[in-house]
Design brief:
Helices cover 35% and strands 23% of the residues. It has 295 residues and is of the alpha/beta class. It folds into two domains: 139 residues, 3-Layer(aba) Sandwich (Rossmann fold); 110 residues, Hypothetical Protein, Haloacid Dehalogenase-like Hydrolase, Chain: A, domain 2 (2-Layer Sandwich), CATH 3.30.1240.10. The strands form three sheets. The chain has a seven-stranded mixed sheet with strand order 1-2-16-15-14-3-4. Strands 10-9-8-11-13-12 form a six-stranded mixed sheet, with helices on both faces. A three-stranded antiparallel sheet has the order 5-6-7, covered by helices on one side. Strand 1 and strand 2 form a beta hairpin. Helix 2 packs parallel to helix 11.
Length: 295
């Protein structure tokens, strides 16, 4: 059975029961959710957020990216609330640049990760709140270089990209909030997850088909949503979240309304209340219209 709204074009698939609360805060993932495959926000999604603003419904973004790689979307949607970055390891007020909450990796775990990933020849990146560190052979860092080049036209400051220190210090390891490992196949993913369970106290969640986000177990979008909702004095039962992948599960499970895109991962589907349209077909706008605005 599907859920229909006043707009006949909007059709959502219920996945598990919820109380259908009045939504006071909308939190939206970026990649695979808000933006299309070309990295652009569809016009209908922009209009949906503009209508949230007009109706005084709060909204912000939650992403696996560092916040500096999401500032262009913050600007486009006129997001004035703190945003959730690095899968919940960072909550930052982008207007003041103040980090309101930070969940770092344990330095010993960070050292273990860097050593193991280097030793096994995997591509990886290390994130602090403001910098991205890369090993000499990294190919993934090219995405950040391309991003920096593209953002010049928007007047956005570049992300600081730094070579991984040859002799990392405790201060360096203490600064890290996330390690992104490129896992090109199922065997590499299984080996990496086995290492995490055996040698660290970290979690490893997929944020894309070949990208494993490795962080402290307390660094989740769910934990960050709880903190942000408390800051804003909004009950979790009156929050709506939208996502598509495993790293969104923690916030999908605790929100009053959890929505996933049409092609969401199996864990995300299991955690959500509704499935909406595809990310490239303005599924976000469809869900907002039906569940936050159609009241």
């Amino acid at each position: 059975m599907s859920k229909t709204c006043r707009n006949p074009e909007t059709l959502l698939e219920p996945l598990r029961p919820n109380a259908e609360p009045v939504v006071r805060l909308v939190v939206c993932d970026i990649d695979g959710t808000l933006i299309d495959d070309d990295g652009r926000i569809p016009e209908r999604n922009i209009q949906a957020f503009a209508e949230l603003k007009r109706r005084n419904i709060l909204y912000t973004l939650a992403t696996g990216r560092m916040d500096r790689m999401a500032r262009v979307y913050v600007s486009q949607l006129e997001v004035h609330l703190p945003m959730i970055a690095c899968n919940g390891a960072i909550i930052r007020d982008c207007a003041t640049d103040e980090v309101l909450a930070r969940q770092a990796l344990d330095p010993a775990d960070a050292a273990t990760l860097v050593s193991w990933l280097n030793g096994n020849g995997l591509d990886f990146l290390c994130y602090s709140a403001d910098e991205v560190y890369y090993p000499p052979t990294s190919r993934r860092i090219e995405r950040f270089r391309a991003y920096n080049k593209a953002m010049r036209q928007y007047g956005q400051p570049p992300i600081l990209l730094l070579p991984l220190p040859q002799t990392p210090t405790d201060a360096f390891y203490s600064s890290l909030v996330k390690v992104l490992a490129v896992v090109p196949d199922a065997r590499t993913l299984a080996r990496t997850r086995a290492m995490l369970a055996e040698k660290t106290r970290c979690s490893g969640l997929l944020s894309g088909p070949a990208f494993l986000d490795i962080q402290d177990k307390a660094a989740t979008k769910g934990h960050a949503l709880k903190k942000l909702a408390a800051m804003l004095r909004v009950p979790l039962a009156q929050t709506m979240v939208l996502g598509d992948h495993d790293n969104d599960v923690a916030m999908l499970e605790i929100a009053g309304v959890g929505v996933v895109m049409a092609d969401a991962s199996a864990p995300a589907l299991a955690a959500a209340h509704y499935r909406t349209g595809a990310h490239h077909a303005s599924g976000v706008a469809q869900a907002i219209a039906c569940l936050a605005l159609d009241r």
